[in-house]
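Re: that chain you flagged

S.,

Sorry for the slow reply, it's been a week of failed gels. I finally had a moment to sit down with the sequence you sent. For the record, here it is as I used it:
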Amino acid sequence: MKTGSLRLRLFAASALSVSVALMLAFWGLGLLFASHVERRAIDSLAVQFDQILAGVERGETGDLQIGSAPADARFITPFGGLYWQIETDTQQLRSRSLWDFALDLPADHLADGAVHVHDLPGPGDSTLLVMERKVQLAARLGGSAIRVAVAMDASELEESTEDFREDLLPFTLVLALFLVLAGVAQIFVGLRPLNSVGQRVASIRAGDSLRVGDDFPTEIRPLAREVDALLDQREKDIEQARHRAGDLAHGLKTPLQALLAEARQVREAGLPDTADSIEKTADTMRRHVERELNRVRIAARAAAARTDLAAAVGRVVTVVQKASTPHKLTWEIDTPDDIMVAVDMADLFEILGAILENAARHARQSVRVGARKQGKAVTVTIQDDGAGIAQDKIATLQRRGARADESGTGLGLAIARDLAESLGGSVDLAPADPGLVVRITLPLSAI
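Prediction finished late last night. Pasting the structure tokens below so you have them in one place:
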């Protein structure tokens, strides 16, 4: 199936259907009106017929004549548009309007009283609508059968039909515009549930909801249920992958312990350099295993995690204040009480603890802690007034295990950064005046 806008395709189909339907309606109404006009004209000719028949008389010579002609002036005006003609076996009478023209009536069989209607040539290349009947005269008029025809110019009927079509055309165009606009409105209203499905899927991706739900119209509900079923299957697959990763990490612990035991034996055998190399390699592998275990643990409980940021900051600051520090520090805390982060409490304590301990260690007099919401995340800012770190050393410090000086280590900072990134956040460092500022970005809870 071709891709493209579903709205555009429905609009094109609707506009085409409306156009075809209205063209057929316009054509059909024209035919219906023409038929109606013709019936009215025949009814009018029937009235004229009765008037002519009522005026038939016998003259003194025995010939038929019209004693009182119809009152319509068109019968006496040459080629006036209304005509009559009477035929007998020996005589033909015509209206003055026919002048020197005679109606060429068809040689068809007429039963007494039967009415025939014809389209016949008229004077001046015109076309006439002709109504004729065979009439048996009364005994006083001779009792013979006569053929009476009354005709009118058919161009009058055609003009009436054309006038009707001209009047109908603007109305048809307005109706077409209305129907097209109504079709557009129906398309937008009908497809609105699909927009709702897209919004809910986006909400799931953003972490604001867990499922699409089934409160949709009947036609959309199967799609929503299939999406939810797909999400269920995806969660099961992810959970299995987490278990496999955890099993793999735990499975590596035993070989690492054996490797460290081998390193001790190598050291006892008098090869300290080789033992150091083995231990460093094993320690690097152990840290990677611990990091993956942390990632698995965090991912497993991230969906239901919800922690009060202000309370967590307060508890961590209290613990750091009680720790042994060279001097008493001033803590400036500005964290709103209404911020709930999508982080497990233990993980949040570990992230904040590593950063706040480092800030307290290097601060001279004060440490400032602030938090501000930014969209669907919160940024926690921790700044100390210590000596700070040069810009060219910050990138090095953020690498796992890198040392800022001989007395400190970047391991805690790297662990905090790994935890934050596992949660969809980040940890960034920047020089400040004075000291160093660390910005921790964490996702807000959607619950």
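What I noticed first: The CA atoms of residues 214 and 245 lie 34 Å apart.

Talk soon,
D.
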